[in-house]
Hints:
The complex is a heterodimer of chains A (284) and B (386). With 284 residues, chain A is an alpha/beta fold.
Amino acid sequence: xxxxxxxxxxxxxxxxxxxxxxxxxxxxxxxxxxxxxxxxxxxxxxxxxxxxxxxxxxxxxxxxxxxxxxxxxxxxxxxxxxxxxxxxxxxxxxxxxxxxxxxxxxxxxxxxxxxxxxxxxxxxxxxxxxxxxxxxxxxxxxxxxxxxxxxxxxxxxxxxxxxxxxxxxxxxxxxxxxxxxxxxxxxxxxxxxxxxxxxxxxxxxxxxxxxxxxxxxxxxxxxxxxxxxxxxxxxxxxxxxxxxxxxxxxxxxxxxxxxxxxxxxxxxxxxxxxxxxxxxxxxx
Amino acid sequence: xxxxxxxxxxxxxxxxxxxxxxxxxxxxxxxxxxxxxxxxxxxxxxxxxxxxxxxxxxxxxxxxxxxxxxxxxxxxxxxxxxxxxxxxxxxxxxxxxxxxxxxxxxxxxxxxxxxxxxxxxxxxxxxxxxxxxxxxxxxxxxxxxxxxxxxxxxxxxxxxxxxxxxxxxxxxxxxxxxxxxxxxxxxxxxxxxxxxxxxxxxxxxxxxxxxxxxxxxxxxxxxxxxxxxxxxxxxxxxxxxxxxxxxxxxxxxxxxxxxxxxxxxxxxxxxxxxxxxxxxxxxxxxxxxxxxxxxxxxxxxxxxxxxxxxxxxxxxxxxxxxxxxxxxxxxxxxxxxxxxxxxxxxxxxxxxxxxxxxxxxxxxxxxxxxxxxxxxxxxxxxxxxx
Lengths: 284, 386
């Protein structure tokens, strides 16, 4: 009898008209989550993020906030967790603990890589990864922000606006003369630029750029610095870089990572005069 | 180019494809004229015609070529080396075989109007549920696409979602076709067990033994190959095709610019399986039998060899490879039966060592060499004139 009443109550509970189920709430949540909410001016929240690989603590309660339109450089010795941090943001690695939010609403730890990319986070890898068998043009076309569903992709044809957009980006990255050249034939620096161009085609809100000037000549470095600073404002740019001169030339805000958490934050001068940073970089 | 008028826009740059389709059309027209029209209108000149067994043999090759295109789509373009593609071919073949069995009616050895011979032999009282509907050709045609497509969908959904790639995926596809072979060998499957389905009489009311029917099935195979080729070319020339190649070359990058890689792999895998199913369905009425041997892993591996020898990622390379290797197979198994497996092995080694891009790659190399020489000659000429 007792169980019967319990079942009855449960049933009534389910059928109550004013009842809101948790799962329907979540559904609504994700619909809202499709729009980026940056009402608090912060676009990326990382709070107490921890990641460990086979006992190695790659990230240790890392907390980091990136403002909308900001250009932030992240430096740190090898193994400080810079690349792992990017992996966590882009969904490649799931954190063991902590929260990662894009705007106020989007929980990046629950989203797949492609959803994160579509939501507006673009990433450039440390080693330039482009599509070697495709031409420069096709590389940019593939990266373009558009419906990336299978059926749409099968029947889609480039509109003239889209062609203009590709040409515009090609001009920005200075590869217009190599438009129909297979990407594998480009030089290292050109590949880096192409990858940055692909990022631009995605029109992301946040650009994560991993070592953009590795293997570049000085002229190329200057142009890259120019490009990245010009992007800040419209986009938030997070740059991970080893080259201190380069960092000095672009950054106003620098974050130093060490052993998986933030060691210091501030302007380049502040950071360079920070005692802890000096110890980490130069040894005691 | 005048010839471009006969082809859709997306094929204008595909010289190999244009050659292939033109040749295919030519052969089909010749066969129809000499083997069908002339014997019909001028019986006294019918000595000119090709023997029907040759037409059927050619028709078989065309089906295998279609199967090779299917594999080239997933392997050459998407980088998924499926070593179980013959399973989809065999499933399409079984669907067609079931229809042909139902067409026998009461002309079987036991004369049972409802049950195929092997069921009578096994003392079965009624048709199993999965045979229902196979007396209708329309239903069968649907199943030829759906059954391989569904298997590919389920298999692909599970493996691609778990991000199984490379050699592990190949091994799993081998296991899949092997498991199917074992299942189809069982009499309890109700699909003829060891002997498979055979002794077909007619299709849509036309006798399978008559020359006319055979030539029509040959022409249909040619048509299927042409349409399969054009559709596949459309796919690989579309943005989807470019995306699929991008996945092959840099999967992670594709994911990070916002493509759901699993969906793309699944789509191309299912399409390819359906294409293989169609090939199998056209193959069965021409050979007159379908049995579990078609599922054997060696068939799928041989299929991969055709594509490798012809040249991956070109579509027409797959067709060339399938035709050449199968012709060689027919020749050698007739002339020097013991020699065939050695020949196949040698062919595979030679193509991996010296022809990494297959026969098509060899032609391209020769062409490039020539154009290089031409350029050098031109340069010299310019120097002289300057």
